[in-house]
Amino acid sequence: MLPTSTDNATSQGIHVTRSRPPPPTWKNLPNKGQLAILALSRFVDFFQMAALQTFMVHQLRSFDPDLTDVDISHQAGVLQGAFTAAQIITSILWGRAADQPMLGRKTVLNIGLVGTGIGCIGVGFSKSYGQAVFWRLMSGAINGTVGSARTMVAEITPKPWHPRAFLLLPAAFNVANVAGPILAGLFADPTVNLPKLFGPNSTFGGPDGVQWMREYPYAVANLMSTTLLFAEAILVHFGLQETLKGKKPLDISKFDPVALVRSAYESAQRMRNQGYRMLQETQREGLLSGDTRGSVEMDRLTASGEREAQRPVQRLAFRRIWTPNVLWTLLSIAIFDFHMGAFANLWILFLATPREFTGGDNSAREDTSLQARSMFKFSSGLGFPPPTIGFAMAIIGFIGVALQFLLYPWANGRFGLMRCFRGSLFLFPAAYYLAPYLALLPSTSPPPNPASGAIIWIGISFVLFLQVAARTFALPASIILLNNSSPHPSVLATIHGIGNACSATFRTIGPVLAGYWFGIWTERGIVGMAWWIVATLASVGCVASFKVRNGSGHEIFLPGEEGETKEGEAGGGSGDGR
């Protein structure tokens, strides 16, 4: 051991100053290759969701061209929410599975990637709305990638680098939000959008084009997502290392059902005779290897010949994970995901709403001036067509990538995790309160034409800057705080599974309620009311954040772990406690 001021260097009259570790930077970030694989797993998952949103309405209309716009909007909401709704139920189960030695994080991650890829195939070749919803439900139910990826990032990265490592996951989200819609839009209905390649008398098509692409016009776009998911699954299988301590390979070839029954009977007898003393991990290993005796008898001896007890891998009971910090963190995440989902729906609705929404069967007014009845009572949107909406949505991704890599690391190091997290939350209400007033900005084109001009786009950029800047700091911070709120390392994946279930729940509820509020209040002539309700709820999240603290990730010590107390306290949370 190197000498320190409290070691033998003092007795020798030598004063040795221990050098401080280098500050965390992108250059000295450890395990870059493993983090890249995990970031790619989140990219392909976000990609398939962003791609589906691009052509979802058109695919639903292809199922039944006679459906009204109201019916299409309802079906689109259900199809989009089916994925996250299924995750509400299964996220905790996948989190528990990822904590089990027989499965582990890597296996759960790969199951999610492959299963979601199969679900994309099903959606691409669906012939009805019901089939598409079924495959999205199946994809969401089998997708446990979020909790596993976050857990593995936490376990392979030393805590000083957590702010940078966890930044890669939302960065993957922003990149996918740019690449997904562009590529999916290009390959949706390829016989129409790429006629020289797949249309009639084209390079790959016959007189009528590629027949299966004509019959399933959105299969190619879905197959593109499947290809990326399967390729990432192969990369995870061969390139990603398992991070679960005590992971045991499941060797089916050595499974002995007779030994299993016999051992189960012997276990029941021992529990009855010895006060229900539970056998440890070594017993489970013996059941699969056929060596049941070795699982009961300790064959490790000390130097004196006495039997040395092996300390088992201990796991915290599920009922003990609900600490106050876990609950406050989950509440903060619930509010955050609610208004984030609500914003995504409100933003698209607001951009597409006519500049003078009259509702019902009222004809358009003859005057071309846009007049607000009062500062709060007006019912106008921006009237953007789909291409302009796509461009406005792409701004979110571009701003997000720039802020995450340029501003976030500096601000997090300068002000600390907690200050950045709490301060960023106040930007959300500001963005939501201001958003509806974009409809009142001067435009170079009169209504009912789409709003245009430099002032309009400066206003849009300013509102998006507030929202994206807040998300840039809040999203990675919420992941880190959830990770550090775990009361024991043995339930880390379970905590992330619960967090993902909470997130999925409120990301499903948020868009539904926001769309309902937007519809009823726009009919009443107050287009901003839905925005202001969401802003008020976001303000509640600002207050709740002051109850959240940056934990250590190991606050409950099981018997035999008391010696790790000092180490756990020294580790602290990611970053600092500011």
Summed up, what is this model?
The protein has 578 residues and is an all-alpha fold. It has 21 helices and no strands. It is 62% helix and 0% strand.
What features would you describe in this structure?
There is one protein chain. This protein has 578 residues and is mainly alpha-helical. It folds into three domains: 208 residues, Growth Hormone, Chain: A; 38 residues, no CATH class; 221 residues, Up-down Bundle (Growth Hormone, Chain: A). 62% of the residues lie in helices and 0% in strands. The relative contact order is 0.12.
Sequence-ordered SSE layout with sheet pairings:
Blueprint: H1 32-63, H2 69-98, H3 104-124, H4 129-142, H5 145-156, H6 162-187, H7 190-193, H8 195-198, H9 211-215, H10 219-239, H11 257-273, H12 281-289, H13 324-352, H14 386-406, H15 408-415, H16 417-425, H17 427-434, H18 454-484, H19 492-523, H20 529-544, H21 565-571
Helix pairs in contact: 1-2, 1-5, 1-6, 1-10, 2-4, 2-19, 3-4, 3-5, 3-10, 5-19, 6-10, 6-14, 6-18, 13-18, 13-19, 13-20, 14-18, 15-16, 16-18, 17-18, 17-20, 19-20
